[in-house]
Design brief:
Shape: globular
CATH topology: Neuraminidase
Distance between the termini: 57 Å
Helix content: under 10%
Strand content: 35-45%
Order of helices and strands: HEEEEEEEHEEEEEEEEEEEEEEEEEE
CATH superfamily: TolB, C-terminal domain
Strand order of the largest sheet: 3-4-5-6-10-9-8-7
Bound molecules: calcium ion
Structural class: mainly beta
Length: about 375
């Protein structure tokens, strides 16, 4: 561990080129904004977790217990996809993220993540080739391409996937409710990693030459459940904080986001954690919330149906039971509107038509389509 500690010390001393950032104000409770959308409920699921669009408008939906479904674009027809590996869905475990490869039309590759069976365990990144149609579908050639390490027990798996404009795959990993792994650079818990599309640590990652794990892109994360590129090619995450202290972060290479040393929230037992402004060497969130909103998901909207949302972030909130619009702005990001949804929102995505789609959480969780009023 000496090598790793030395690396930590080096990064702390060098500040990893972190200039003390202007501290964004902590966002508190907000009144609900008028909804600029009509809502249609297209389908319902048993604890849905994520959705992804295929280029023709059909959808993939995962359910926590381990089913992946192929849905028609109108949500009326569905088929369970075969070939999905066994999942540990106890606690926070789930069949989680699902994403179609950016070149899906040519390669039919579907990437997904799940909590592997066993204890200790970890989040697994896998991919397969989608075969078939709404009469019968399966993933062929399912392969594990990346696994979390070390294996531990606990929640906070994360497992979100974002393809970069240059084809690299970014993958978020939670700290499994173990706190300190987020600062340990010989493992990937509490990290965002940068991989090739085949799941190998991408060449040129920032800590590889300094003795850190070769996959690490950024660290000091808690439970980063949202991960998305904006229209300028910048990477953002949305991260579950402890009691208060949920975050939206601009993700930059080699930066330390401070968990569990700093947080704008507190421990659940009431003990404070020093706020970000007390330690400028850790990258501060661009937006943080207290009380918590519990961000489950993050979309950067790029469609035309909602011109005011273009280039901004939409966050699904679980405890907040809302869709939250965040302006990523030039000067500083800030919450712009909070649309009350009356249910925990587990997923947010955008269809090829520019409509926004949400998944409610839990049993009976509905797929909602938002179109302009
Ligand atoms: Ca604090």
């Amino acid at each position: 561990m000496h090598r790793i500690n030395a690396l930590c010390a080096f990064l702390a001393l060098s500040g990893a080129a972190v200039a003390p950032a202007a501290q964004a104000p902590i966002t508190g409770s907000r009144p609900a904004a008028p909804q600029p959308f009509e809502i249609s409920a297209l389908a319902a699921f048993d604890s849905p977790w994520a959705l992804a669009f295929l280029p023709d408008g059909r959808m993939l939906v995962t359910e926590k217990a381990g089913r992946m479904l192929l849905l028609s674009a109108d949500g009326k027809q569905r088929v369970a996809i075969g070939g999905i590996p066994e999942v540990d869905s106890s606690g926070q475990g789930a069949l989680g993220e699902v994403v179609a490869h950016p070149d899906f039309a040519a390669n039919r590759l579907v990437y997904f993540s799940y909590s592997a069976p066993g204890s200790p365990n970890g989040v697994v990144l896998a991919r397969g080739k989608l075969i078939g149609n709404l009469k019968g579908a399966r993933l062929d050639e399912v392969t594990t391409i990346y696994k979390a390490h070390p294996l531990v027990s606990g929640g906070h798996y994360a497992g979100r996937i974002a393809f970069a404009p240059d084809g690299h795959l970014f993958f978020s990993l939670g700290e499994r409710q173990k706190f300190t792994p987020a600062q340990e650079l010989d493992g990937v818990l509490g990290k965002v990693v940068r991989l090739t599309a085949d799941g190998k640590p991408a060449p040129g990652n920032p800590l590889a030459a300094k003795g850190g794990d070769p996959a690490i892109w950024s660290y000091g994360h808690r439970n980063p459940l949202g991960l998305a590129f904006d229209l300028k090619g910048r990477l953002w995450d949305a991260e579950m904080g402890p009691k208060g202290g949920d975050e939206v972060n601009l993700i930059l290479p080699a930066r330390n986001y401070g968990w569990p040393i700093v947080s704008n929230g507190s421990h659940y037992d009431g003990r404070d954690i020093p706020d970000h402004p007390t330690k400028a060497e850790y990258e501060a969130p661009k937006v943080s919330w207290n009380p918590a909103i519990s961000p489950s998901s993050l979309l950067i909207y790029s469609g035309k149906l909602f011109p005011n949302w273009h280039g901004k972030a939409l966050i699904g909130a679980l405890s907040g039971e809302a869709l939250i619009l965040v302006d990523l702005g030039g000067g500083g990001a800030q919450e712009e509107a909070r649309y009350a949804m009356g249910k925990r929102i587990r997923a947010v995505d955008q269809g090829p038509d520019g409509a926004v789609y949400l998944l409610e959480d839990k049993e009976g969780g509905r797929l909602l389509k938002l179109t302009p009023k």
